[in-house]
Amino acid sequence: MKTGIDSDDGDTPIEELARVAALRRDIAREEEVAVGRARHAGLSWAEIGTVLGVSKQAMHKKYRKVG
């Protein structure tokens, strides 16, 4: 479906946005797995948050069920 102006790689803006949304979902899943592994390896919420650039409180709130 063509809607709007095509980007340089031939995707329409809608297709490009859909691709970005899929990438976000993939990254979120990878992050959750990595956080779980880090917690099981003994890393603290503060250590994980530092690596990911967020506070330990944000990490704990988002992933408390993971580990």
Structure, explained:
- The protein is an all-alpha fold and 67 residues long.
- Helices cover 66% and strands 0% of the residues.
- Helix 2 (45-52) crosses helix 3 (56-63).
Summarize the structure.
The protein has 67 residues and is mainly α.
Comma- or semicolon-separated keywords:
67 residues, mainly alpha, 3 helices, 0% strand, elongated, AsnC family protein
**Helix percentage range:** 55-70%
The secondary-structure class comes to mainly alpha
Q: DSSP helix count? A: 3
Radius of gyration, taken over Cα atoms and rounded to an integer in Å = 17 Å
Shape category: elongated
**What's the number of extended β-strand segments?**
0
Parts with pLDDT < 50 across at least 5 consecutive residues? none
- On the 0 to 100 scale, the average pLDDT is 88
Q: How would the blueprint of this fold be written?
A:
Layout: H1 13-40, H2 45-52, H3 56-63
Helix pairs in contact: 2-3
